[in-house]
Design goal:
The complex is a heterodimer.
Chain A (H helix, E strand, L loop, with lengths): L3 H15 L1 H36 L2 E6 L5 H13 L3 E7 L1 H11 L4 H7 L7 E6 L6 H12 L4 E5 L2 H43 L1 H9 L4 H36 L9 H24 L5
Antiparallel strand pairs in A: 1-3, 1-4, 2-3
Chain B lengths: L5 E9 L5 E10 L4 E5 L6 H8 L7 E6 L2 E2 L8 H5 L2 E5 L10 H12 L3 H14 L15 H13 L5 E5 L7 H16 L3 E6 L2 H6 L3 E4 L12
Parallel strand pairs in B: 3-8, 3-9, 6-7, 7-8
Antiparallel strand pairs in B: 1-2, 1-4, 4-5
Helix pairs in contact in B: 3-4, 3-5, 4-5, 5-6
The chains are: A alpha+beta, B alpha/beta.
Chain lengths: 287, 225
């Protein structure tokens, strides 16, 4: 566009003239973006933990006590043939006892006191595929439980579904809060730019008198709104980044938002700012 | 006479509050003509000019400017018509935070000329009005007469077909008024139709030019112009 330079200069001049008013609009955006960013960060981190746990998910399949080595091998064969099973590692009763002692050394006398090894043989079954929906895992576990010779199958179901539920709640609540705060921020931009436009109504009238199109008059304000959105978003990001860094120095394993979230957030606030300005300037164009 | 630059046929303008500003006005202003629009305050002179710049629309009748029927003109085409009409006001209406040069450059910026070309054209018209040396001043650092000359430079920057002036010397001393009038005449001599609304009959009498009288929104009967 041939007047881009002019529009940018005008927008920056307007921002300069706006002073505290513009600063207030930027801060309103910053506040809204920061809240949205905090929700986004919590959601993202829960999501990541959930994904990691899901990747490492395994099911412990306990044999019935009376199952001997031969039967156990047959069960293992069966398990490995089930769709969705990647690997099944056999843990014999002896190995289970060793692991128990390894895990709880102070209780090792418990086993010897019993005289007989009370631990059943088991298989540690690793699941295949990247995407494992909780329902799918539950179905597979039911299938495993039905295998002859299997006593029980245990996995971190409750924890996993709780985690997923938490991520979903944070996600939905965050989205709702972001929408409300985003709308509030846009209203602030509309009224701020509205005041700026009002202060410059004479200039607008003169511009229109010498043949400016509505688009020409509107453009600098829209650029101003866009910049307010971007500045506000960047300030919020800086604050958020600082917060994450701060937590990390205290060994809290918080991850900063990925680029896609950052890009989408900045884009949304920039667009909101531009849109707000466009609305604000419209009613002053009827000259 | 060639096709008129401004053509009004039975034009009536009634404002929303019921005030009849123009009542059955029929008049032509030719290409390259210089005309004074006279009448007491509130006679309808400003409304007459506003109909030409499409700030207002006629309630009834036909208004044609540079061959365009304004009733049929689409809203988005209004800016392009206005680029062919220069307007000068009693209160100058300059942008006080911009320099003289920037004020004159504004219509050229809107037109989308390169910055160098904007500057060149603006300096050219500032030279015409004799203010090239004040290009970096702010309007409020200038005298009233100088400010009006800047406004005139801005109005003629796009080399308009029509120049409208609404009480252009209402705030100025007699000597300066005379100087401004001579400027209008020079602009008119370059082929621009000039319409000057004024209630200053002394000025009008001294300028040997056509006079369009308005009284209570009407053109008094007389020999057709």
């Amino acid at each position: 566009m041939k007047n881009t330079g002019f529009f940018l200069r005008e927008a920056f001049k307007n921002i300069g003239r706006g002073g505290t008013l513009t600063a207030a609009a930027v801060l309103a955006i910053t506040f809204a973006a920061l809240i949205a960013g905090i929700f986004g960060t919590v959601y993202y981190n829960l999501r990541m933990i959930y994904e990691e746990v899901r990747q490492e998910l395994y099911v412990d399949v306990y044999m019935k006590y009376e199952v001997d080595e031969e039967r156990a091998a047959a069960v293992g064969k069966h398990l490995r043939r089930l769709p969705g099973v990647a690997r099944a590692d056999y843990i014999s009763r002896e190995k289970a006892a060793e692991e128990f002692v390894g895990l709880f050394p102070e209780d090792s006398d418990l086993l010897s006191a019993l005289g007989e090894n009370p631990l059943p043989a088991s298989y540690r079954v690793y699941l295949a595929g990247e995407e494992r929906a909780p329902e799918e895992v539950a179905r597979l576990v039911e299938e495993i439980k039905a295998v002859d010779g299997v006593d029980d199958a245990v996995y971190a179901q409750e924890w996993l579904s709780n985690l997923e539920r938490a991520a979903r709640v944070v996600g939905v609540a965050g989205a709702a809060v972001a929408v409300v705060l985003g709308a509030a921020a846009i209203l602030v931009v509309i009224s701020t730019i509205g005041l700026a436009v009002y202060a410059r109504r004479e200039t607008i009238a003169i511009m229109k008198m010498v043949g400016a199109t509505d688009g020409f008059v509107r453009a600098p304000f829209v650029v101003e709104g866009f910049l307010i959105g971007v500045f506000g978003g960047l300030l919020a990001l800086a604050a958020l980044y600082g917060g994450v860094q701060f937590l990390q120095t205290y060994d809290v394993a918080v991850r900063f938002l990925p680029e896609t979230y950052v890009g989408a957030g900045l884009g949304a606030f920039a667009l909101g700012g531009a849109l707000g300005s466009s609305v604000a300037v419209r009613r002053f164009l009827k000259v | 006479m060639t096709a008129p630059m401004i053509k009004m046929r039975n034009v009536t303008k009634v404002y929303e509050n019921g005030v009849v500003a123009l009542d059955d006005v029929t008049v032509d202003v030719g290409k390259g003509e210089l005309a004074f629009l006279t009448g007491p305050s509130g006679a309808g002179k400003s409304t007459f000019l506003k109909l030409i710049t499409v700030e207002e629309k006629a309630t009834e009748g036909l208004v044609e400017v540079a061959g365009h029927d304004l009733e049929a003109l689409r809203r988005r085409d209004i800016p392009y018509l206005r680029r062919r009409i220069g307007v000068v006001f009693q209160d100058f209406r300059l942008l006080s935070e911009r320099t003289v040069l920037e004020n004159v450059m504004l219509p050229l910026t809107i037109l989308g000329l390169t910055p160098a070309e904007q500057r060149r054209r603006a300096l050219q018209v500032l030279t015409v009005v004799g203010l090239a040396q004040r290009k970096d001043a702010r309007p409020l650092e200038l005298s009233g007469g100088e400010q009006q000359r800047v406004a005139i430079a801005r109005a003629i920057a796009l080399d308009p077909a029509i120049l409208l002036a609404d009480e252009p010397t209402g705030n100025l001393d007699p000597d300066i008024t005379w100087h401004i009038m001579k400027l209008f005449r020079a602009i008119n001599a370059r082929g621009t139709a000039v319409v000057i609304a004024t209630h200053d009959y002394d000025v009008v009498r001294k300028m040997d030019a056509r006079i369009i009288k308005i009284l209570d929104g009407k053109l008094p009967p007389g020999p057709p112009a």
